[in-house]
Amino acid sequence: MRLSRYFLPVLKETPSEAQIVSHRLMLRAGMIRQQAAGIYSWLPLGFKVLRRIEQIVHEEQQRAGHIPLLMPTLQPADLWRESGRYEAYGEEMLRIKDRHKRDLLYGPTNEEMITDIFRSHVSSYKDLPLTLYHIQWKFRDEIRPRFGVMRGREFLMKDGYNFDLTYEDAMHAYNRHLVSYLRSYERMGLQAIPMRAESGPIGGDDTHEFLVLAETGESEVFYDSEITDLRFGDRAIDYDDVAQCRAVLEEFTSRYARTDDTHDAAAFEAQVPEERRRSARGIEVGQIFYFGTKYSEPMGATVVNDKGERVPVHMGSHGIGVSRLLGAIIEASHDENGIIWPEGVTPFHAGIVNLKQGDGAADAACESLYSALKAKGLDPLYDDREERAGAKFATMDLIGLPWRITVGPRGLKNGVVELTSRRTGESEELSADAAVDRLAQIYAPHL
Ligand SMILES: Nc1ncnc2c1ncn2[C@@H]1O[C@H](COP(=O)(O)OP(=O)(O)OP(=O)(O)O)[C@@H](O)[C@H]1O
Ligand SMILES: [Mg+2]
User: Fold this and answer.
1) Right CATH number for 3-338 from 3.40.50.300, 3.20.20.140, 1.20.120.790, 3.30.930.10?
2) Separation of 349 CA from ligand 1 center, angstroms?
3) pLDDT, tens digit, for every residue of 324-346?
4) Same fold, 3-338 and 348-446
5) Which atom of ligand 1 is nearest to the CA of 152?
6) Which residues are 251's β-sheet partners?
7) For atom 6 of ligand 1, which residue has the closest CA?
8) pLDDT tens for residues 349-378?
């Protein structure tokens, strides 16, 4: 993309309505525009990051054997009357009437609808295990939408649902989700810690929330500091291997880590030596639940087992806050000049800054860099505007591309361009070819 042809409405002023840094930076970098309280348009730069996050979630879900589909945003109220949640959900549910006065709602989550799909099409234990998921917009009429996309009313969520014959099979699905979530967040450059949590209106017994530590987080958390040393990394995992998935769950959840809802001060003191006890704030970026037959029983989602008996299936649901993740990533990765995108989610892989637009040699070098990066499968943003170098650098810093290549007539005389890391600020002079090769290498794990 050439910046002169792009739509990047950056703001000079710091917007006064934004209380936290991620919201401020998303507005300043021209990523989102608020259309009503907690409802946003995703401008091109924000939309690109949203799509990259979605892509990672899709890849990791499918690697775990989970199957994508797409359910609608609007749902008939009758489905929710079957589970008893139409009345129970309260004011957060946006209720709508169509022209025939039929009750609809904008889905805050999809347990009922997926259970309906399951009961209509599956009747034998031989079709299990099954995990279906989608990435779809949700609406919750939050009392206090705030912090930009972190607590919106309309927000994008990945929600997945497992259907299993037994408790043991359902717990394997739970563990698979935990592993796939650890991988997903790490690919986004985030550390998200699974913590024991309360289940809320979804219901159920076993549940973990994934929290990104950040001062601006809305949850209070208590944990053993050893937990922050754990990394899933690029180890191989066989998602069909029950023991292997179970071992990952144990590794990541055996140390004390709880949100304030389930925190138990006496257990914390008994289990964790004082010097390792931490209390902090965190952003919830996902949650996994096992809830057994809570929906399958009232809604008649049953299968015939190998003894010919009809039994309700064991279920769980598993969410990732796709749009909230943009805010969480920025909270975890920024400096006073702007955003610092992790390589896994950056909207463009590198910025090209032409120090002297209109200079024949500089223009030609930028054009050839631009094509060479694209030929390697990379997605560069070329700042080809007639602007001062300082202004170009400030824009690149604000929008947070991890790498910048600076091209100017003086360097070109010596056959070099400059490659700068947004994170460390360190620059290196090298030939244009070498810069392209370096970037291709850096991004190889992310393409
Ligand atoms: N209002 C919201 N805006 C943006 N993302 C949200 C919002 N509510 C929930 N999410 C995201 O969707 C994920 C799955 O939804 P879940 O039902 O677990 O939310 P929740 O526990 O009600 O969230 P919270 O406690 O923050 O209100 C959450 O982990 C979170 O990342
Ligand atoms: Mg939750």
Assistant:
1) 3.30.930.10
2) 29
3) 999 999 999 999 999 999 999 99
4) no
5) 3
6) none
7) 321
8) 999 999 999 999 999 999 999 999 999 999
Whole-number Å distance, alpha carbon 311 to ligand 2 midpoint, is 29
Give the ligand 1 atom nearest the CA of 218: 26
Give the tokens for residue 170: 């359902």
At which residue do the structure tokens 């946006």 appear? 94
Confidence at 201, pLDDT banded by 50, 70, 90: low
Residues bordering ligand 2, an ion, CB closer than 5 Å = 287
Beta 380-383 vs 350-354: how paired, if at all?
parallel
Domain boundaries, the chain: 3-338, 348-446
Name residue 335's beta-bridge partners.
Answer: 338
% of the chain residues with pLDDT over 90: 96
AA letter at 16: S
CA–CA gap between residue 440 and residue 252 (Å, rounded): 33
Ligand 2 mean position, distance from CA 223 (Å): 18
Residue 392, SS3 per DSSP = helix
Token representation of residue 147: 């912090």
Amino acid identity of residue 180, one-letter, is: S
Sign of CA pseudo-dihedral 362, 367, 368, 373? positive
Q: Which residues line ligand 1 (CB under 6 A)?
A: 109, 140, 142, 151-152, 155, 157, 200, 202, 284-287, 319, 321, 323-324
**Contact present, 197 and 259 (Cβ < 8 Å):** yes
Q: Identify the residue whose C-alpha is closest to ligand 1 atom 27.
A: 151
DSSP string, 74-122: EEEHHHHHHHTHHHHTGGGSEEEE-TT--EEEE-S--HHHHHHHHHHH-
Specify the pLDDT at position 204. 57
CATH code of domain 348-446 = 3.40.50.800
Average pLDDT over residues 139-146: 96
pLDDT mean over 31-54:
98
Contact 321, 157 (CB under 8 A): yes
Give 55-67 as a DSSP string: HHHHHHHHHTT-E
270 has pLDDT over 60: yes
Residue 308 to residue 401: CA distance in whole angstroms: 59
Three-state secondary structure of 289-337: EEEECCCHHHHCCEEECCCCCEEECEEEEEEEEHHHHHHHHHHHCEECC
Q: Are 184 and 320 in contact (CB under 8 A)?
A: yes
- Write the DSSP string, 338-381: EE---TTT-SSSEEEEETTTT-HHHHHHHHHHHHHHHHTT--EE
Distance 286 CA to ligand 2 centre (A): 6
The H-or-E segment that residue 183 falls in is helix 167-187
